[in-house]
Amino acid sequence: MDSISSGKLRRREVLAGGMALLAGIPSVAHAAPMRIVSLDYGLAQTLLELGAVPAGLIDPASWPDWVMEPILPAGIANVGSNQELNMEMLQLLKPDLIISTPYLEWVRPQLETIAPVQSYPIHAIGSSPMPHIVEATRQLGDILGRKPAAEALIGRTEAELARAREQAGHLRDRGVTVVSFLDARNLRVYGPGGIFQDVFDQLDLRNGWTMPTNEWGFSDAGLSELMTLGDSRVFYMDPVPPDVLATLPESPLWQAMPFVRSGNAQRIASVLMFGTLPSYSRFARLLAEA
Amino acid sequence: MAGPWRSLAFTGAIWMLAAWVAAFNIGPLLASLGVDAAFTPPDISDSRAVLLYYGLLPRLAMSVVCGFALGLSGTLLQHVLHNPLASPSTIGIEAGAQLALAIMLVWFPALLGWNRDLVTAFGGFAAMLVVFSVAWRFQFNPVSVILVGLVLGLYCSAMVMVLAQMKDHYLTGLFIWGGGSLNQNDWREVGRLAPKIMIASLCAYFLARQLSLLTLGETARSLGMKLPLIRASVIFVAVTLTAFTVSSVGIIGFLGLAAPVIARATGARHIRHRLALAPLIGAGLLLLIDQLLQLQLSLGGVSLPTGAVTALAGVPILMLVMLRSKSMMQGTPAAQQGQAPSRRPGLILAVLVALVLAACVVAIMVGRDIDASWTLQTGATLESLLQWRWPRLLAAISAGVLLAVAGSLLQRLTGNPMASPEVLGVSAGTAIGLLGTLFLVSAPDYGQRLFGGFLGAAIVLALLLAMSLRKAQSSNQFLIIGVSLGAFLTALFSVILASGDPRAASLLNWMVGSTYATSGETAVISTVCAAIALSLALLFTRPLQLYGLGEGAARSRGVNVRLFRALTLGFTALLTAIATLAVGPLSFVGLMAPHLAQKAGLVRGVRQIWGAALFGALLMAVADFIGRTIYFPWQLPTGLTATLLGGPIFAFLLLRSGKTLRQN
Question: Does the structure's ipTM exceed the value 0.90?
Fold first, then answer.
């Protein structure tokens, strides 16, 4: 529960970290680097961390608003959206590999005429995504021939979580909850099945939200339902719709929330809720610093 | 019991039921806090009292105010437009408001922070102005108002979906809003909305006297009244009511249509009675549904948008009531659009064929390169891209042909220019059938999906057939059922999307008419079907022509009317199912293509069907090309693009033909 990987891997962590350092030195590539297209932000995060910059990605322009970390290098081709992939762009990019999620499984036959497809079920599985994300990280490391980098990423994440766990003592006095505003009256509240809950578990924090969540790991809720959070610490995540910040402070309901009265509501920077290990580190760090 | 009293009793029953359900939600809190807690601002340290005073009660009040406003708005619109189909949703106001909000969210978020209400009200009024500017030319001819309104509403929804496709992250809130959420944070929203609704309602009732003169119809003109002006001002009040409501809580689609219809069906025949009762029925219904939703949530259910569920609940009620009542469908008979036949139909057809071919060549050869520059692709590049281009092009074209043929047949058969697979709900029936298949069979193949879709379409058409046998002249009833089914489908999708079902994602994809992943196999099947359909449709033209002279005339010339009608409807259902599987239920080609053919002067028999098919093919081929390239590397779904393209063409043609329509 406390550790991402088994103890055995822990011992290998130092070694792996060392190898990652070596890999960081501009090594002479043994072959032309693989051209990869990622149809998922989360998997693209992992690719970047493994040092494999994808040739194409869905909607790269929105990356800074939702993902932030790691920083997306310039010049990555836009292959459309999850709803409407641009098959021609994919074809023209001549990728060696397409990585995807089960969300796009229905177009797999078409994608496979362009390049081999690897699909990773990392979200919307109805349980903690963490083991699946770690598994996907290892598999990607395998495929890219960057096993050490994958282990290093797992180790890094583990270390970040451990550090955040030490720093998060001040958050343990009460429940912690993360919400996103859809508009001034409707929100998403995160719970079991998503990465935020995983980080809570790693940091030994108690989620103040106890209602059931969907398989993506959140509940849709009206503002008044936040009353059940009591005096939890509530983080509302960026991006917040502009009119919410303008109207919320005047709302008696918001003002009456126990967590607002005790000054325990605060804004937190955006973390990709369907992200991979870099999102874990980022969220844990933001929490610990809060 | 006399009519209005029966209706009043019905209204009372709805309210009692709503109060009973509300007692479960609010009763326990009231019992422990005392009745005073409902009327005095609580100490903010008492969270339960705050929840009651700032959460539950404003929401309750909000549902009453909104239900009242929508019920009144619908009553006014239906009355003044002489059309039982009229409602805020069917004349495009709600969709216009939603589009304005979507545009603000994507491009001018700062403005949104300034005033969300004003933005949506602006959109509603803008949509109304468009409909009015067209309707003005027809002197507010009821059918043309609805026709323009429907197309505009569809157009706006299509634009919202296009935006959502590209900016899906930002518009999540909009979907909640589109589903109609009654959640409240305090009394401010109610406090803002209620006075506005009150003033607009007073205006409405002040106009009631003029309205009752209007029921005398055209004779009022002889009294020296400026009929169009009064109609316009009544519509203005109705739109105001809707725009205010929509800007506060979002789209509660079906209420404005259902409330007045239910009032009339339960016995409120006179407009005076409906003006009094329909708003109360609207308020009671919305209250009941919203309280039921809160109850199921507190019992561990899922959070669902009230507006969507209202439509889900409203449609069956509406249909039940409508099937039981006999005297309510006294709307105007739909106008036939007179158009002189062209003297050179052969030439027109030849030009159309050439245009379709040209569009195909462009759609195959022209594209954008990796750096988004326009190029004419040839050789090896074209070869590699061809596998993506031809299936989607073929699927689009054949769907265009199928829908156009289906639309032509339906318009002929019903004698109603507004009839089409989309408007009659056949597309929606296909979609619902497909939905059922997806939930019953884990991974349905093409045959199973086609069967499900066909079954859905056939059930809708069988229902229409059964109704047309019972009452000969009720083409408006067809339209009501069709529009209801469309709303039902939209609501069903909102609810499925809100419930987070994994099947929702690919469904949404299909809904918007996405063809980017069409397989070659599907494309070939559709094409073969389109070719067969086109040849078979020609067999229908002669009987249809006789049929157009009247049933008696057709029968006397040896047409088995019943069999013919059943055959035509079954055939149409199959065509619609095949086309809808390929491009989704939203394209509207089935309505537009036959009209385009008529406007081009191809008015009769074989020519009209060929003309419609060619227009359908052309529209879809151009849509395929534009959707693929215009916003590269983004792509727009073909079905939506066809709607975006067809809307303005359609409006332009309507405006140009104003003279001919006005004479009807």
Answer: no
